Amino acid sequence: MKYMLLIHQADAPTPRSPEAWATLSEAEQQAVYSDYQAVNETPGVTPGMQLDDPATATTVRVQDGKTLTTDGPFVEIKESIGGYLLFEADDLDAAIDLASRVPAARLGGAVEVRPIVEW
């Protein structure tokens, strides 16, 4: 079964937020890079892409045939989604195991695991 892992960065330090990133030691920063590389190299993983800040998002709705746009992320997303990846796993437990290895999960963020519906 395929799963999408949505990486919610929340307050997890990333290189894109230099002040937060500087709170990690050099060894911790290297561990984050190594852990993401190991996750991306796990058999069955299709690495996704890192997403830009939520402030750069545009939300699109269509109402009465008219396209409406709003600056910013969909309001029901309380945490910012920093990226995603796809994982072909035998079961949910394997996907949860992979999600637990994503650095954001231990640095203040979270990883949402969602099965992909295939038609």
Topology:
Blueprint lengths: L1 E7 L9 H4 L4 H15 L4 E6 L7 E6 L2 E6 L9 E8 L3 H10 L1 H4 L3 E6 L4
Antiparallel strand pairs: 1-5, 1-6, 2-5, 3-4
What does this structure look like?
This protein has helices at 18-21, 26-40, 92-101, 103-106, and strands at 2-8, 45-50, 58-63, 66-71, 81-88, 110-115. By secondary structure, the protein is of the alpha+beta class. The strands form two sheets. It has a four-stranded antiparallel sheet. The radius of gyration is 16 Å and the shape is flat. The two termini are 12 Å apart. The model has no long low-confidence stretch (mean pLDDT 88).
Nearest-angstrom radius of gyration? 16 Å
Strand order of the largest sheet: 2-5-1-6
Gap between N and C termini, in Å?
12 Å
Shape assignment: flat
Order of helices and strands: EHHEEEEHHE
Poorly predicted ranges: none
Q: Work out the oligomeric state of the chains in this entry.
A: single chain
Q: Could you say which structural class the secondary elements and strand pairing correspond to? A: alpha+beta
Helices, by number, come to 4
Q: Percent helix among the residues? A: 25-40%
Largest sheet data: 4 strands, antiparallel
List keywords for this structure.
two-stranded antiparallel ribbon; 119 residues; alpha+beta; four-stranded antiparallel β-sheet; 4 helices; single chain
